[in-house]
């Protein structure tokens, strides 16, 4: 890039150069004329014309470059001054603003720290309270779960016992049904044998109307007689009254007296007492059936 301060001295040098070129060209022309060489004169003329054109073009470029350099230097110098003024002028105000902001922030920093510490403490206490509540909820849930498990085990145990009880009752009922069927068959068979036989009788060999043979007269009760006499496992064609009437014909004391002579003397009173108990129970059962029929 050309220096602007050297541009005034460029024009005299250029004029001096042109004068030298013109003198040289004149000398060459005169020499050529004197030498009388036509083609050399044409060559020198063409060279001179080209050099003149080159000088003009170079001069134009030099002027444009110098102008551009001046403009750029002026523009940047003015802009730099403006920027310096702009930067220098508000810095005082900016420094004051910064100091004021720093003071405000310095004053508020302690409040912010205290506020942050208070918030942190509150959050910590809240977390501790939440942890205590969750722990208490877990304990309550554990107790409820234990109670639910205990209730479930109790229900399962009750259901198991009920199932076992039902199964036992079913087994007992089946066993009782077998005993009733066998006892009724034995009762009818022994009464038929008693009427046809003349063998001696004892208390244990008397065909009592009971499911299980009695040990003494205390085992002869109305409920025990009802259990065998009213069982649906036998005599389905007879009503309850028919069953009672048939039993009364057998156990009436006057009718049973014909068998007392075959009973040993030491057991006769016991057998006679047992027959009387059976007769009274049958009479009570008949009275009850009549009352139920009357209703």
Automatic annotation (TrEMBL):
| InterPro entries to which the protein is assigned, alphabetical | NFKBIL1 (IPR038753)
Stretch list, region Disordered:
1-36, 148-169
**Protein name as annotated:** Uncharacterized protein
Q: Can the keyword Cell membrane be found in this entry's annotation?
A: no
Where would you find this protein in the cell? Nucleus
What is any one GO biological process for this UniProt entry?
negative regulation of canonical NF-kappaB signal transduction
Q: What is its main location?
A: nucleus
Organism name = Psilocybe cubensis (Psychedelic mushroom)
């Amino acid at each position: 890039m050309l220096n602007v301060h050297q541009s005034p001295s460029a024009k005299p040098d250029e004029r001096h150069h042109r004068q030298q070129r013109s003198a040289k060209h004149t000398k060459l022309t005169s020499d050529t004329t004197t030498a009388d060489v036509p083609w050399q004169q044409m060559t020198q003329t063409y060279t001179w014309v080209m050099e003149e054109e080159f000088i003009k073009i170079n001069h134009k470029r030099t002027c444009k470059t110098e102008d551009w350099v001046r403009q750029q230097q002026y523009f940047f110098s003015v802009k730099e001054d403006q920027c310096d003024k702009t930067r220098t002028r508000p810095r005082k105000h900016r420094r004051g603003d910064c100091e004021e902001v720093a003071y405000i922030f310095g004053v508020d920093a302690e409040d912010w720290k205290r506020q942050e510490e208070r918030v942190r403490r509150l959050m910590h206490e809240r977390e501790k309270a939440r942890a205590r509540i969750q722990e208490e909820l877990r304990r309550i849930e554990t107790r409820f779960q234990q109670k639910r498990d205990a209730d479930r085990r109790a229900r399962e145990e009750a259901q198991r016992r009920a199932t076992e009880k039902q199964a036992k009752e079913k087994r007992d009922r089946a066993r009782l049904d077998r005993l009733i069927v066998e006892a009724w068959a034995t009762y009818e068979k022994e009464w038929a044998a008693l009427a046809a036989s003349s063998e001696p009788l004892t208390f244990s060999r008397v065909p009592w109307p009971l499911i299980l043979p009695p040990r003494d007269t205390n085992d002869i009760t109305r409920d025990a007689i009802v259990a065998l006499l009213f069982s649906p496992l036998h005599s389905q064609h007879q009503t309850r009254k028919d069953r009672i009437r048939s039993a009364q014909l057998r156990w009436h004391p006057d009718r049973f007296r014909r068998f007392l002579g075959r009973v040993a003397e030491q057991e006769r009173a016991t057998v006679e007492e047992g027959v009387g108990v059976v007769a009274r129970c049958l009479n009570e059962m008949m009275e009850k059936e009549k009352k139920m029929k009357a209703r």
